[in-house]
Each structure stands twice: as structure tokens, then as C-alpha cells.
Design brief:
alpha/beta; 12 helices; 13 strands
């Protein structure tokens, strides 16, 4: 098996200390375009706000004795910028129609104008450097609009950090302090986009990013050890940067949930592939501009791969399935078609919940630790007797105090 980790390039310093503003802001739009009710408090320069509890969140419940756990799927997106392909907005609609929630891992430089790139001080790189560049201003504006709308629909805004540096001098060589700097800068770009852009005609993002940001995915899945050292001090509750995880129930590392991309079957091949569009593509064509005559075959294989990972868990140990994506057009957009088909097929199946990483860790933290330990004993292909899994210590109590 060839494992390759990649990224998408879209066309295309810390801000002031955050302070709560005294004046209330206009309530942001809700899921159906209706005005949300309740007070909204602007934060800092008005780039973000506290608009209360997020709509559309899963309310986690502790497994009752004998209850089969749901089949969780997390669809996540690295970079999370909107450009002329309009895939961010498209998948918001797909998710709505599929009753799915998603995690958007925002690259901080996608919300910083290129004209202000001197505000970014990447670890051990020149000021303003970025291996994914910066969004054009109209795309940056579109991205801000999509982020607010997505959050109001129950989707999570995580982080893909900033300049997407990989290889010997990238994230794999960074210290815990380097990762802390990356996160603080990413948060600053979100919290100060109005100051950095000069735009006053867009509403505040409807979330407080200091509270919203509880996890991320490192570029190229590199540097997780040092990142996990930094994670508790950053308020992270999970990290999704580990490559090549098996389809088993997750564990915590350094007090943080380790939620890896996973090895899943690649039908027609003798090896498994990482559950990310880039890796499926690399094991098919090794280029984003492959032979068009093979696009249909590759799309079917990609869809079959995602569904094979789903079916293996759904009919087996019910371990959560994590699928990673980019808003990309590789090989004619076939991977976007494959993941859309997967979302529309799997998310509406009985006992299946397509959730954010935030929702997943809330559910995991609500469970009896003894039950989670039992779930971890079931390997790939196991057929548990669910009547015995949650039979001790679990009272079926709904956990709703976080909402």
C-alpha cells in the first residue's frame, strides 16, 4: 500500500486582545433563514459573537443496558474555504438533505487577506509564508459567509492550523510551543477578520472561537506527538491528526481523544487505504489529473471503499468511521461525487448518526468508562452480543447539562 498525505490549494501575527462588547448585535440567521432568538453579544472588534447554544447539536445519551451503540460517521473537511467551485455551500445542502452534520477544519490563512500576510508568523518560516497561499478577497468573503451559515446549521468549526507546512521543516519538526503559536494565530485571524479586512457590511460570526475550537487536524497528518503535548493547554478535547488508525473504538492520549483517519478496504485491491480523498486518489492515479477514461471506474471504487468501511463497522463492532476530505476537483471531481453518494446513502440508514467530532466526543464522554473499555475489546469483524455490553453501570441517563 502507498500512503500519501496531501492537501488542496485554493485559487487564490496576533490580533488585539479579545474583549466583550457591551452593545448587542443583530441575531444571526438560523438553519432555515429565520432570525435566531435571544441576545447576541459581540466579541472584540465584532468579528465573532456569543449567540448562545449552537442549533442542531446532538444531545448525547448514555447507552442503556443492552443497547446497541449508534454507528457514528464523521465527515470532515480540511482547509474549508469557499471558492468558485462552491463546494462548501454545496455540501452544506447535501448535509441538510442527508440529516448530517460535518466538521470544517478551517485553515487560518483562508480568513486573512493576502495584503495582511505580515500578521502571520509561521514557526521557523519567513513572515507571511504559506504553502497553500491565501484566498482571493472575494473567496475570503464567501468563506466568512459560509462559516457563519454552517455553524448555525450545527456544523463544527475546527482548525487545520495555518500555512500547511509539511516535510522535514514542517509540522513534523515543530515543538509544543510551535503548535501553540499556530493555534493562537489561527484563532486571532478568526477573531479579528473585520479589522484585517476592513469589511463592515458582513455580520459577526455567530460563535466565540475560544469556546468553539476544541480540536483540529494537522497538515499532512504530521507532528501529532508534539501537538498532543500542547493540546490540553489549548483547550483541545480531541485531535484528528493520526494516520492509519484501525476501525476500532478510540482512546484518549494525554487526556485528549485520538480520532484518526482509518484504514478501510479498497475494493479490487489487496490492500486498504486511508479514509481520505487524497489517499484514494493517490492509490488510483497518483495525480489529480488522471486518465478521464478511468474516472467512472475510480469514482465507483472510491464510493465502494467508503461504503465498505461503513458496512464493516455497521455490521460489526460499530466503531465510529472518520472520513477526511478537501473541497477539491481532482480527477474531474469524482471524489466529491463519491463522498456525496456516501453521505446520502449511509447517513439516512437506521441507527446511523453522521455527526461532528464535537458531537462524537460529547457522546464518548457521556458513556460509562467501563462500557467504553468493553467496546474497545471488539476488533474489526467482531460480532458483539450487544445485550451484554452496557449491562453494568449504565443507567440510560440522558446527559444534557452541556446544552
Amino acid at each position: 500500500m502507498v500512503v500519501a498525505i496531501g492537501f488542496v490549494v485554493f485559487a487564490g501575527g496576533s490580533g488585539d486582545e479579545e474583549q466583550k462588547a457591551a452593545a448587542p448585535a443583530q441575531a444571526p440567521k438560523g438553519q432555515a433563514g429565520q432570525e435566531r432568538q435571544g441576545p447576541v453579544t459581540l466579541i472584540g472588534d465584532g468579528s465573532t459573537s456569543d449567540s448562545g447554544a449552537q442549533p442542531g447539536r446532538l444531545k448525547p445519551e448514555r447507552l442503556a443496558p443492552g443497547q446497541t451503540p449508534p454507528q457514528f460517521i464523521v465527515f470532515s473537511w480540511d482547509g474549508a474555504g469557499e471558492d468558485d467551485k462552491r463546494l462548501f455551500s454545496h455540501f452544506r445542502q447535501v448535509a441538510k438533505e442527508s440529516k448530517a452534520k460535518m466538521t470544517l477544519f478551517l485553515s487560518g490563512v483562508y480568513i486573512l487577506p493576502e495584503a495582511k500576510k505580515a500578521k502571520y508568523h509561521p514557526p521557523h518560516k519567513p513572515i507571511g509564508a504559506s504553502d497553500i497561499g491565501y484566498l482571493e478577497d472575494d473567496h475570503l468573503r464567501m468563506t466568512i459567509e459560509q462559516l457563519g451559515a454552517a455553524w448555525n446549521e450545527g456544523h463544527e468549526i475546527g482548525t487545520h492550523f495555518n500555512g500547511h507546512f509539511c516535510g522535514p521543516t514542517g509540522g513534523g519538526s515543530w515543538s509544543a510551543d510551535d503548535w501553540r503559536s499556530e493555534v493562537e494565530q489561527a484563532k486571532s485571524f478568526v477573531k479579528n477578520w473585520k479589522t484585517n479586512t476592513g469589511w463592515t457590511d458582513l455580520p459577526a460570526l455567530p460563535f466565540d472561537y475560544d469556546k468553539e475550537l476544541i480540536g483540529g487536524r494537522a497538515p499532512c497528518l504530521e507532528g501529532q506527538k508534539a501537538l498532543l503535548d500542547a493540546a490540553p493547554s489549548l483547550g483541545f478535547r480531541y485531535d484528528a491528526s493520526s494516520p492509519g488508525g484501525r476501525q476500532v473504538w478510540p482512546t484518549k492520549v494525554n487526556g485528549v481523544w485520538d480520532l484518526p483517519l482509518q484504514q478501510i478496504p479498497l475494493p479490487g485491491r489487496k490492500f486498504e487505504v486511508l479514509s481520505m480523498d487524497y489517499n484514494v486518489m493517490f492509490n488510483q492515479s497518483r495525480t489529480v489529473k488522471g486518465d478521464p477514461a478511468k474516472f467512472k471506474e475510480w469514482e465507483e471504487q472510491a464510493y465502494a471503499s467508503y461504503m465498505a468501511g461503513y458496512e464493516r463497522a455497521y455490521t460489526g463492532n460499530r466503531a465510529p468511521l472518520m472520513i477526511g476530505n478537501h473541497f477539491e476537483g481532482w480527477n474531474g471531481g469524482i471524489y466529491m461525487k463519491a463522498v456525496e453518494r456516501t453521505m446520502r446513502t449511509a447517513c439516512v440508514r437506521p441507527d446511523t448518526k453522521c455527526v461532528t467530532f464535537h458531537d462524537l466526543v460529547d457522546w464518548l464522554d457521556a458513556q460509562d468508562p467501563a462500557v467504553l473499555a468493553k467496546l474497545r475489546t471488539y476488533d474489526i469483524g467482531a460480532k458483539p452480543d450487544w445485550a451484554t455490553v452496557a449491562s453494568s453501570g449504565s443507567q440510560g441517563v440522558a446527559i444534557r447539562d452541556r446544552y
